[in-house]
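Entry for the shared binder. Reason: the reviewer on the internal report wants the predicted structure included alongside the sequence.
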Amino acid sequence: QAQFVESGGGLVQAGGSLKLSCIASGSRFSMDGMAWHRQAPGKQREFVAGISSGGSTNYADSVKGRFTISRVNAAYTVFLQMNSLKPEDTAVYYCNRFPSPLSWGQGTQVTVSS
């Protein structure tokens, strides 16, 4: 069973940047699509960005032009570069296989202050 360990979150002011990392283990990483999701307090988990095994990407409208997802298959790692952060980006961010997610990891907290 694959496991995902997210890191890179933190506290940042509005307009700032963060880069999240996710290391996958126990999966056929290079063959799987991957995605970042987020969950804000009191809200459902939502899709943020996805990347196919071939590198095609797609984004939620709310983050288009600000976030960039990428992957390094040899390192079993997927990244999320987040620029021009807004307070509404505050959430716990998770990575997982996409579109068939496996067990969710602990996530990494991103807090954007106004």
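Summary line for the report: The longest strand covers residues 18-25.
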